[in-house]
Amino acid sequence: MSASISASPLARRRRRSALLFLAPACAMFLIYVIYPIFSSIVLSFYDWDGVGARTFVGLANYRELLHSDTFFTALQNNVLWLALLLLAPPIGLLLALYLNQKVRGIRIVKSLFFSPFVVSGVVIGLVFSWFYDPSFGLLKVLIGHGVPVLGDEHMATPGIIVAALWVQIPFCMILFLTSLTGINPEVIEAGRLEGARGWSLLWHVVLPQLRPATFMAITLTVIGALRSFDLISVMTGGGPFDSSTVLAYFMYDQAIKYFRYGYSAAIAVVLFLVMLVFIVYQLRRLLRSDN
């Protein structure tokens, strides 16, 4: 009886200490994440130039979006980004399986594969802009003639996505490589004793243990595809003729160039809802597979 009475104040002190430690992080999350989300949702119902008084317009910004050709082009480009950038996790897994071996010089190879991820997006955009340049770029040297990749409305978006893949693949590779090094070798050996070899060993023994890394790789790749901005800003500026713009750049364009903050907030809300759908879908798949 006395032990339970003495333990109660100790438990309260521990809970109080935990709340005190969590309070700064929770406050920052509320200020820098939750508040901006709700503020953007409220702002999307107004017409505001960032200086004068706000004018309530209801759903007018959303109705204008539905009649905007640029919005549907940006949405279509986001879908293309999503479809092609999802090649990064399987390619990253293949590279991780290749690099997860103990041979001489493998650390140097790992560093070369990982190096694109630590380079700034602006630098990568400039490098690929020079690579695609039809007058002196390396692509011209490789194929023998210049191709205006970034100047062609049908080739600009795929050209930028190639640059994005060059960064995203090493990121996924590191996630899988870290998980591979943490796999219990006894589980692999048990699988081999049961007759698992090659693809069977990978599918039934290795991949189930990489499920958390797979979830992180796919989720972060989806988020990166939907919020793509820096490479587009550096390489094409959304052109030519808005053919390579995406929702994030379209949102920035309307706010910074045309001072349409309410309309830009409506685009941000649509982008947030699209992200939310994909993230919830991935979380439900993960929870269902765990159950």
What does the model show?
Helix 3 (69-85) packs antiparallel against helix 11, helix 6 (121-132) crosses helix 8 (156-181) and helix 13 packs antiparallel against helix 14. This protein has helices spanning 2-43, 60-66, 69-85, 88-99, 106-114, 121-132, 138-143, 156-181, 185-193, 198-209, 211-226, 230-235, 247-257, 261-290, and strands spanning 46-47, 55-56. The longest helix is centred in the N-terminal third of the chain and has 42 residues, at 2-43. It is built from 14 helices and two strands; from the N terminus they run αββααααααααααααα. It is mainly α. Strand 1 (46-47) and strand 2 form a beta hairpin. It folds into two domains: 2-43; 55-290, MetI-like (MetI-like fold). Strands 1-2 form a two-stranded antiparallel sheet. Residues 74-282 form the ABC transmembrane type-1 domain.
What's the topology here?
Elements: H1 2-43, E1 46-47, E2 55-56, H2 60-66, H3 69-85, H4 88-99, H5 106-114, H6 121-132, H7 138-143, H8 156-181, H9 185-193, H10 198-209, H11 211-226, H12 230-235, H13 247-257, H14 261-290
Helix pairs in contact: 1-14, 2-14, 3-8, 3-11, 4-8, 6-8, 8-11, 11-14, 13-14
Keywords: Cell membrane, Membrane, Transmembrane, Transmembrane helix, Transport
Transmembrane segments: 20-46, 79-99, 111-132, 160-180, 201-226, 261-281
InterPro entries: MetI-like (IPR000515), MetI-like_sf (IPR035906), UgpAE/MalFG_permease (IPR050809)
